[in-house]
Amino acid sequence: TDAEVNIRKKTFTEVQTERLEQAERTVLIKCPPKLNEKKLLQYLSSHGNINSHFFFENRGIHALIEFSEKDSIASLQDAIGIPSAAEHHVVPFKSRLFTFTLKNPVSQAAEETPLHLSPQSHIPVKELIQKLCRADNISSQMYILLNEYQLTEENIKLRFLACSLVRDFTHAYFPDSTVKPFGSSVNTFGKLGCDVDMFLDFHDTRKHATKMKKGPFEMEYQMKRLPSERLATQKILSVIGDCLDNFGPGCVSVQKILNARCPLVKFSHQPTGFQCDLSVSNSIAIKSSELLYIYGCLDSRVRALVFSVRCWARVHGLTNSVPGTWITNFSLTMMIMFFLQKRSPPIIPTLDQLKELADKKDKHVIGGYDCSFVSDLSKIKPTENTETLDVLLGDFFEYFGNFDFRKNSINLRKGKEVNKPESSPLYIWNPFEQDLNISKNVNQPQLEKFVAMARESAWILQKEDNTQQMINKEPWGLAALLIPFGKSNPSKMKNRMKGMGSETIRSLLDSLKLNNANSLQKAVGK
């Protein structure tokens, strides 16, 4: 649609800034069960014009209300009372989270109107498979999966609101700090239900540098000095973590993980329903988010392929929500980007090509690494490649099923295979920190499992007689790849496992057991 084309052309930073500003004009209301939508909006409008709103279910009905003016929130807050503390005593922190109840429920319940609720999670794989089977071809299947799994406009607003509510706390100590989402919430590859990675940024303080040139004095703040940046990060996060734990409405299960390579605070934000990870600004992580944003915006096939392959990897236990020796979603996504750079003609440009297109304002050197690349999407020439998603999906499995992982590494800067600099089973160059391998965690058995599954999938797609399967009502195309292998015909799989070391097969079996245990745990935990 035309509207979408317009949205897509904005730079990453423009979109971020716009959404953060939007979030500051937003409140979240827990609504009474029998609600008349018109009455609610009518009342709220008495405090100012409402730009947009939606309802969603999360242990009761909630409404996200975005006002046109920030002042409307102050006006509404003036009318809101503090909960009467009979058995509990309250922490008197006034946030933008409110509870509305009906004054006389009986008479008002009669006026209840049915609400449209925005889904905040995706459908289960079983239901997805049924939907996919009704499509006409594999490309359509992949777009159906994308539409079911991708973040909705409403869900993105909720993510930015969660960041904005955390920022209300950091403001108390650091008035010019911001809290911004990064990673899958903003890189166009997030799926409904994924965690919100957010970071605390103080970089706006650098804008003063130009003003300091005036006048006869060198002037600076007196600030507490610490031996390392890491220690400062740990202290700041420790205090903010305590704040959220002690005073944050709806912030539960706060865990401070301060000794990690990247110190962070994990917490569950009940009002929005998100699991959140808060860390202190990591400019390189932002650059990675922006790079993926650009790739995701350049061609609609990019996101469709990523969502399908990620879903496939999750079904077969190649990726996992807990850290370990398996491939991460980030590594897998980078492998897909590399594959798309290698097509003829390429579907997306290499990072070096994007760097060539960069102008002055795109120059970024972070910790000695050059992270410059073009931010204006309109400067990038659209691809001339017209391959269908059916072809790309099959060729992806074919390509990595036969990739020489022993010898070659994956380099997105150059868009070509280069000799491995060291002996990790899977070596994917960090696009920005050139001496790091983003898949260092992956061990040989996991890589071999990936290769085996890729081969199996390429084989299934090649030998398939789709029309026959459609007639038989059997899962076909992408749907056939989303059913754990070995369920339908275990003997087939064994033939293609020949030539693998018994040690590898043993650890494959262990990881399969582990996956089952994990999914069991998850099912029980829900």
UniProtKB/TrEMBL annotation:
Keywords: Magnesium, Metal-binding, Transferase
RL domain mapped to chain residues: 11-79
Cofactor annotation: Mg(2+); Mn(2+)
Residue intervals of the PAP-associated domain: 391-426
Classification via InterPro entries: MTPAP-like_central, NT_sf, PAP_assoc, RL
UniProt feature coiled coil, ranges: none
Molecular functions per Gene Ontology: metal ion binding; poly(A) RNA polymerase activity
Keyword Iron annotated: no
Matches recorded under Gene3D superfamilies: 1.10.1410.10, Beta Polymerase, domain 2
The name this protein goes by in its record: PAPD1 protein
Species whose genome carries this gene: Pelecanoides urinatrix (Common diving petrel)
Gene expressing this chain: Mtpap
